Amino acid sequence: INIKMLDTERHHGLVKIYEGPTGEGALVAVVSGSSIPEPIFVSASAVYVEFVTDVIHDSTLTSSFKATYI
Predict the structure, then answer these.
(1) pTM, whole model, 2 decimals?
(2) Disulfide: which of 36, 43, 55, 63 matches 13 by Cβ 3.0-4.6 Å?
């Protein structure tokens, strides 16, 4: 998995990556902030990506990420 763009509030906007098709698989990586991490390698044929944020009803804050999976 290559994270191409990352713009989250550090420790409050998390991108969690799990091996397998659900969040029940092994947690492979958790990323946040704006620094692009090195490619994330998984051995499974599917991944589950979860975006978690604790920002509620604040229209001035935005969080986003862009990733590719080959």
Answers:
(1) 0.83
(2) 63
